[in-house]
Amino acid sequence: MTMTEHLELVSANKSFGGWHKRYRHRSRALDCEMTFAIYLPPQAEVGRVPLLWWLSGLTCTDENFMQKAGAHRVAAELGVAILCPDTSPRGTDLPGEDDSYDFGSGAGFYVNATREPWKKHYRMYDYVAEELPSVVRQHFPVNGRESISGHSMGGHGALILALRRPGHYRSVSAFAPVVNPSECPWGQKAFSAYLGEDRGLWTQYDACELVARGASSQPLFIDQGDADDFLEEQLCPDRLETVCAEHDHPLTLRRHPGYDHSYFFIATFIEEHLRYHAERLNKR
After folding, report:
1. Which of 18, 116, 171, 224: disulfide with 280, CB 3.0–4.6 Å?
2. pLDDT at 3
3. What's the mean pLDDT when you consider all of the chain?
């Protein structure tokens, strides 16, 4: 995206002295209109600020985290901007795109699809890794220091983006991430359709596989509720814990009794994550 291309302001809300803004733009990577949200803390009005990427989970849009997580107050205190992309292309009218919650709309899985009919639009990895960062750099007062976090499918996205791009993000964290999508029903459904049956393609989007191959030494910080309905079948944090131990990969995995998969869980611990990222974003 160049400065001459159009970025349409959808809405703007004052929040804790800063601004929560939503924008619409034409994505070249996804070949459709996309909406994203950015929280700009008060410090952004007088200088450039670091940026935290937040990737959301299945069925979510750019709105869920910004409205439910309670992150703005601490982000305003710390002087950190937050960028929330949508979770998939929208309005592409592909067959089966809107038939289930865990596939198609709201379920891009942060991969670059290689199979028809998905490969024309479902290129969320390139969108989050390349295109949207270019938009943000050109239009907003960010200083080039970035961290990344996310929830569930978005936690998977945060982990793989950080592991595949050593040194790009100052830090990475996740809430209840899908850590081994190649071996869980959500991931197998999405990967089979988007990537086909070549499991060699799957491994580049699987945190356990990336750790096993030594893709990066990026420390991982994960919170997981032990009352999460998806814990055993879909999330499988024990697998990541095992592979990190086997390969001496730095991992902090905190298990929280009684917490489920909801935004109540995220809201409870988001301040700790924001402070964790801010400490690393502000290091010279």
Report:
1. 171
2. 44
3. 96
Burial of 271 (0-12, 13-18, 19+ CB in 10 A): middle
4 pLDDT band, cuts 50/70/90, is very low
pLDDT top residue among 221 and 94: 221
Q: 39 pairs with which residues across the strands? A: 20, 82
Q: How far apart are CA 110 and CA 113, in angstroms?
A: 9
- Locate tokens 């999405």: which residue? 190
CA distance 188 to 169: 27
Which helix or strand (DSSP H or E) is residue 33 part of?
A: strand 32-40
Quote the CATH superfamily of domain 7-282.
Alpha/Beta hydrolase fold, catalytic domain (3.40.50.1820)
Give residue limits of the domains in the chain. 7-282
Which is nearest to 37 in space by CA: 87, 108, 74?
Answer: 87
pTM: 0.96
Tokens 């596989």 locate to: 209
Structure tokens at 257: 């009794």
Buried b (16+ CB within 10 A) or exposed e, 51-81: bbbbbbbbebbbbbbbeebebbebbbbbbbb
H helical segments located in 20-59: none
Residue 227 has pLDDT above 70, yes or no: yes
Active site residues: 152, 228, 261
Question: Please, are residues 182 and 203 in contact by the beta-carbon 8 Å criterion?
Answer: yes
Kind plus residue range of the DSSP H or E element containing 113: none
Q: How far apart are CA 35 and CA 63, in angstroms?
A: 10
